[in-house]
């Protein structure tokens, strides 16, 4: 299966994609994570995109589509994929069709995480991850079982994203509304969009996604 998780910043795309990876052996393809990895590794690409990401604006379509194409080339045919944060523009949606066809794949479902924008700032500003394994946490909604210790790998170091501040989140939401939401009708016309209540608690969202994928 090849699915898209579509939703604004903080909708829970990354949270749900990690669960699908763990539970179904699918592969999460997050362009945001790929770009952050390029920055961490101090690559020319990382330098090129840093300022754009920190402002909350979108990186160029060519860059992100090339990242997705390259990553798909490393997967075997039986590995399912979860597109997280891609496509984000009409041009990226068009590229995705071409790229999927080139890799002998087709898009099965677009899961739209429906959320109330007012809740998203709180979700994003409270978010942090394990600095070692990347497991995701939240100041209020998902604390480690033992305070200050990662549930997954036991590390005691955590980090926050530089773009997770209120001002940048507003820009990211405006970008979502202006450039990403308009691609939804394209997928609706194909009859492959399933809406899920992204305001429900994390387990409930996972259950709703599971029922979409299993139907
Ligand atoms: P990206 O990394 O994709 O960020 P984003 O779209 O802004 O989304 P987030 O990662 O912030 O949110 P999420 O939906 O993954 O939420 P999460 O699960 O973490 O992109 C970053 C930047 O990279 C962009 O601004 C752009 O510059 C660039 N970029 C990336 N892709 C691009 C592309 N295709 N084209 C151009 N530029 C691109 O959840 C958030 C928090 O809420 C967590 O703490 C979580 O624990 C909590 N939470 C999750 N679900 C729930 C729930 N149901 N209830 C309560 N809390 C919840
Ligand atoms: Mg994410």
Short description:
With 215 residues, the protein is of the alpha/beta class. It has helices spanning 13-24, 31-40, 44-55, 61-72, 90-102, 117-125, 166-180, 184-189, 202-213, and strands at 2-6, 27-30, 81-84, 109-114, 127-130, 136-138, 158-159, 193-197.
Report on the architecture of this protein.
This protein has helices at 13-24, 31-40, 44-55, 61-72, 90-102, 117-125, 166-180, 184-189, 202-213; strands at 2-6, 27-30, 81-84, 109-114, 127-130, 136-138, 158-159, 193-197. It contains nine helices and eight strands. The model has no long low-confidence stretch (mean pLDDT 97). 29% of the residues are buried. The chain is of the alpha/beta class and 215 residues long. Helix 2 packs across helix 3 (44-55), helix 4 (61-72) runs parallel beside helix 5 (90-102) and helix 6 (117-125) crosses helix 7. The strands form two sheets. It has a five-stranded parallel sheet with strand order 2-3-1-4-8. A three-stranded antiparallel sheet has the order 6-5-7. It is globular, with a radius of gyration of 17 Å. Residues 13-14, 30, 32, 85 line the site of magnesium ion.
């Amino acid at each position: 299966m090849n699915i898209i998780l579509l939703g604004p910043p903080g909708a829970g795309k990354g949270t749900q994609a990690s669960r699908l990876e763990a539970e179904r052996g699918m592969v999460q393809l997050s362009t945001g994570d790929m770009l952050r990895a390029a920055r961490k590794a101090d690559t020319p690409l990382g330098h090129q995109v840093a300022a754009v990401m920190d402002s909350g604006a979108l990186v160029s379509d060519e860059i992100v589509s090339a990242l997705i194409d390259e990553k798909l080339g490393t997967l075997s045919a039986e590995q399912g994929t979860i597109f997280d944060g891609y496509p984000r523009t009409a041009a990226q949606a068009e590229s995705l069709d071409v790229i999927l066809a080139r890799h002998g794949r087709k898009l099965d479902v677009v899961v739209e995480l429906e959320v109330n924008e007012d809740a998203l700032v709180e979700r994003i500003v409270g978010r942090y991850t394990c600095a070692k394994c990347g497991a995701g946490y939240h100041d209020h909604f998902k604390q480690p079982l033992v305070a200050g210790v990662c549930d997954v790998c036991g590390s005691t170091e955590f980090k926050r994203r530089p773009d997770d501040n209120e001002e940048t989140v507003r820009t990211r939401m405006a970008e979502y509304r202006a450039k990403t939401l308009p691609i939804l009708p394209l997928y609706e016309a194909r009859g492959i969009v399933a809406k899920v209540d992204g305001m429900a608690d994390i387990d409930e969202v996972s259950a709703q996604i599971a029922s979409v994928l299993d139907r």
